[in-house]
Design a protein that fits this description.
Chains A, B: Pfam families: HCS_D2, HMGL-like, LeuA_dimer. Two copies of one chain form a homodimer. The first copy, chain A, is α/β, with parallel strands linked by helices. Chain A has helices at 24-37, 51-60, 87-94, 108-115, 119-136, 147-153, 155-167, 184-195, 213-223, 244-254, 262-265, 268-279, 300-308, 335-344, 354-368, 377-388, 437-450, 501-521, and strands at residues 5-8, 41-45, 69-75, 99-105, 139-145, 172-177, 202-206, 227-230, 296-297, 326-327, 396-406, 414-423, 426-434, 460-468, 479-486, 491-498. Strand 11 of chain A pairs antiparallel with strand 11 (396-406) of chain B.
Chain lengths: 522, 522
């Protein structure tokens, strides 16, 4: 079996996604990350379509990549224009990439509807463009746009377009499922037929519109395809492209087709997070292999089994892609979840210790009131510390007041909070404003406590979630507040539940600061 | 080809997902939605594992579902316990569901590691449990846990466990890829072999740990499997279960295997959104078929092509699943939505009327600030009335104050609101308490307005939802409040957005009462 090569198009197809727009500097930084991950080909952009992409190729030629080749993307020549005079083709050559990839039309419907030329002319466009590029540059790939739809509509013509590319001596022909509507068994059937008629090495470019992009890519490799195109995190137009973060580990670990080194594979989660960060998109927790929930266990049956042997409920070792096993606490969890958590927090707990049962009872009782500790590890750790008697009381809140006032029909309300805290015998009484009552209270609590514990300044509120619990009682119903806080090194979650949203927020805010103080002491 | 039946486990496996926890009321509401969508089997929970699930079966038996059958989930009997004395089996029968589904072990490794019994004993567990259930209840399904991993490890034994189930006369044997590590071509090969040895109808239950859950399910149906298990939006443990929102349209539209009606299929996006909303999880834009980006076009080439013919870059018509085409640069598609709404509200609106454009601009500006009118028809109708000049001002809020006070460390905070309103020249200044600031404000507003409009007493707050909008700014970020109100005859939704939760709640509360007053007048 030939080695499968990875072709990343995060920087081109990936930026077609809604909400994703990368700066030139971002693109350069991502290119380096992809190079380190061991990606063989990095498609940097379409220099014929916008100036940012022209600048990218200028810039990247000055950077030293370890091993990756940089590819420029473009289209076949225009109709009725000689190939050597075609602007798009000239711009591609001028960008001086290591590889040139151009796309052409496979689907007769598109030749008529979009290009508005004869089927014969389209074959000439493909042959001319590739033949010219092959004679004036190095490696050249051909993206057969809409290949699968084209094949389904007119298999003879679709294969003819591939034959035109093959005749031009192209290095790889990539079968594209541009609209993403093809299913894996169709991919198998169609590639099987193509292989009897085309000898040029084949590649696959799939989209996720049927949630089958990864499966289609893997199916194609199983059939003998040697190049896989995709993007990090599956970013791309509409539902996205084939997700390389899922394809790489399956190729490497399940199909035994090595494409990167084991060390590079261990960076997969890191690369995924890095690209999310630069694209300013929150990571998808549930993402296969690299998501934070990918190896998170909640059901008691599963937890007790993975404690004995992780293979029981994990399809692979998470460490291989830089991820880790997590145990979640919920009303579905049993004693083994509590034990696993205690271990994670370095707390000394015996499964027959009455404290374990007390904690479990406590959790169940709190969850009945609406608590949920899945996103609130810090509150859970404090709870365990309290049960074990190892919780230290750093401060005492004597009382607070929050006042929201609206002074006229067109005036927005203002919020002000006053607070009284006691630390080591000293009382601090202070006040602060905020946008809304919770923000005002948060500002006042911090202002008072930072006087005694200046390190609390490091704590930032990263996320604040509110869930109103049993529907049907309107505003009198119970409220759960989940807060995520962080400092330079860590992130932690806390939770509060009350029929009063101010009270619920207060409980979660206090836990967050209390947790930070405990960590500072450790 | 036999009709494929859909088996939804959102209410059981779906709740194993991190961050997802459904209240009993939510589960009942979702069951109705699934029933309306045409799902044939709804797995409601595991009555043997927690009291919430026992309550679900009690509750659902009193509700009238149109066509769906309700299934209860459980495990085979314990080792060394007679089946008729096994608590889990007894609880299943006591729940009196339409269908009972139990899981058993297929993988020899699990039999030894998790059950710690002999391979022979495990076969007895499976046979006994299913045989007993078949004799004491109606339809019985068998989930062969870890079937694919078990088959890969020991194909002979794995098939023996299925034969034990078949011998007990079970109605369907579901092959489970519990750890989600199996790839589509493995599914094809393994099911092909099973079909030569098992004649009982087969089903598929797949997980998304390799991002192949949907592909695996479709591959299995292609092989002849007649039951597909999955969840709405793919919710489920770790990376989730097979996503029914992707499976249903592919089965129906691509594979021509009808499983719901065309009308039901058009509700798919609505059902997806509904489940996200109740689970309090933001919808995934990029989700295949139902995501808001699924038919969104950004690239210039694509946009001009789809303007001529959508088939060029769309694998199917979005309307078939209740979605729509969006053009990201020039979103002109909104006008028809406004027209449709105006018609719904019996408002006289011309598409060339400048008011239509004004409403459209207004909506766009408000949506930019975080408004969302999907669950807030009443706010939308008031907005249109204001633009048309047919809105009547029933009252004026001059101002309000809300005070939350906590008087000691162990004291719960109290909330009090004062309000001043003006109706027809008369001013009313009053005060009320409540559990939390929003409830206190709501009580005060009603108390003041009911003096002038006693019919407002009929209005009940049915639901109150809070969503904090762009994460990352903590408690200072923007807040959206959705309120559902009702009287004896109707229900209506209103919305408010502000960086201050009190203000956002106030806006939605006022709209709700204003709407009622307009309806009383009509």
């Amino acid at each position: 079996m030939g080695r499968v090569k990875l072709y990343d198009t995060t920087l081109r197809d990936g930026t077609q996604a809604e909400d994703i727009s990368l700066l030139l500097e971002d693109k350069i930084r991502i290119a380096h990350k992809l190079d380190e991950l061991g990606i063989q080909y990095i498609e940097g952009g379409w220099p014929g379509s916008n100036p940012k992409d022209v600048a990218f190729f200028k810039e990247i030629s000055r950077e030293k990549l370890r091993q990756a080749k940089v590819a420029a993307f473009g289209s076949t020549r225009r109709a009725r224009v000689a190939v050597e005079k075609d602007n798009n083709i000239k711009t591609l050559l001028a960008a001086e990439p290591d590889v040139i990839t151009i796309f052409g039309k496979t689907w007769d419907f598109h030749v008529r509807e979009a290009l508005r030329i004869s089927l014969e002319e389209n074959l000439e466009l493909i042959f001319d463009s590739l033949d010219f590029l092959k004679r004036h540059s190095g490696e050249v790939f051909y993206d057969a746009e809409h290949f699968f739809d084209g094949y389904k509509a007119n298999p003879e013509y679709a294969v003819k377009t591939l034959q035109a590319a093959q005749q031009a001596g192209v290095d790889c022909i990539i079968l594209c499922d541009t609209n993403g509507g093809t299913l894996p068994f169709e991919v198998a059937r169609i590639i099987g037929d193509v292989q009897t008629r085309i000898s040029t090495p084949l590649g696959i470019h799939s989209h996720n519109d049927s949630e089958c992009a990864v499966a289609n890519a893997l199916q194609a490799v199983e059939m003998g395809v040697v190049q896989v195109q995709g993007t990090i995190n599956g970013f791309g137009e509409r539902c996205g492209n084939a997700n390389l973060c899922s394809i790489i580990p399956s190729l490497q670990l399940k199909m035994k087709r090595e494409c990167v080194s084991d060390d590079q594979l261990r960076n997969l989660q890191d690369v995924s997070r890095y690209v999310y960060e630069l694209a300013n998109i929150p990571p998808d927790k549930r993402q296969a292999f690299v998501g934070s929930s990918a190896f998170a266990h909640k059901g008691g049956v599963h937890v007790s089994a993975i404690e004995r042997n992780p293979e029981t409920y994990e399809h692979m070792r998470p460490e291989l892609v830089g991820n880790r096993t997590r145990v979640l606490i919920s009303d579905l969890s049993g004693r083994s979840n509590v034990m696993a958590k205690a271990k994670e927090f370095n707390l000394d707990l015996d499964s027959r210790d009455p404290v374990t049962l007390e904690i479990l009872d406590n959790i169940k009782e709190m969850e009945n009131r609406g608590y949920q500790f899945e996103g609130a590890d810090a509150s859970f750790e404090l709870l365990m510390k309290k049960a074990l008697g190892s919780h230290r009381k750093f401060f005492q809140i004597i009382g607070f007041r929050v006042l929201d006032e609206k002074r006229g029909e067109d005036q927005r309300p203002t919020s002000e909070a006053t607070i009284k805290v006691k630390v080591g015998g000293k009382v601090e009484h202070t006040a602060a404003e905020g946008s809304g009552p919770v923000n005002a209270l948060d500002n006042a609590i911090r202002k008072a406590l930072e006087k005694f514990y200046p390190k609390l300044k490091e704590v930032k509120l990263l996320d604040y979630k509110v869930r109103v619990l049993p529907a049907g009682q309107g505003t009198a119903s119970s409220t759960r507040v989940l807060i995520e806080s962080g400092d330079r090194h860590n992130r932690w979650g806390t939770v509060g539940v009350s029929d009063n949203i101010i009270d619920a927020s207060y409980i979660a805010l206090i836990d967050s600061l209390d947790y930070k103080l405990h960590k500072l002491e450790e």
